[in-house]
Amino acid sequence: MATSSEAEAVLFDLVDLYDRAYQAAAAELSLSSAQACLLGRLDERRGMGALADELGCDASNITQIVVRLEALGLVTRERDPRDRRARLVARTPRGDEINRRFAAAFTFARTTVGRLSPHEQDQLTALLRKALG
């Protein structure tokens, strides 16, 4: 039976491998992992403040990432019609294509979970939900 410290070590290894694979997939497209992450959150227009809250970072960090993505032609910014002080961010068609390519390149989760039987996948899902509270 695994101890809590063994489970923590395995989880740490998994998170580390996930992070490295995420960074590598982003780098294949000349993006940082933060840029790829933000691009993936834009299935619809989003406010900069909402993105900062969701990603757990400062609004100024989101602004820097968005400025870089905008310079690459991957996102646009526009004034929020409900609050002229706020900006909405949306992917461009090129941003949609890069996001699709990133999703195809980032295979870590699919590959890792794919090694498990359907029953094991169900068990893993239940255990992860329980661990997340």
UniProtKB/TrEMBL annotation:
Domain (HTH marR-type) ranges: 4-133
InterPro entries the record matches: HTH_MarR-typ (IPR000835), MarR/SlyA-like (IPR039422), WH-like_DNA-bd_sf (IPR036388), WH_DNA-bd_sf (IPR036390)
SUPFAM superfamilies on file: Winged helix' DNA-binding domain (SSF46785)
Protein origin, superkingdom: Bacteria
One Pfam family this sequence matches: MarR_2
Xref: SMART domains: HTH_MARR
GO molecular function terms noted in the UniProt entry: DNA binding; DNA-binding transcription factor activity
PROSITE patterns: HTH_MARR_2
UniProt keyword terms in alphabetical order: DNA-binding
Entry keyword annotation includes Ubl conjugation: no
Keyword DNA-binding in record: yes
GO BP: any one term: response to stress
PANTHER family, per database record: MARR FAMILY REGULATORY PROTEIN (PTHR33164:SF99), TRANSCRIPTIONAL REGULATOR, MARR FAMILY (PTHR33164)
Name listed for the protein in its UniProt record: DNA-binding transcriptional regulator, MarR family
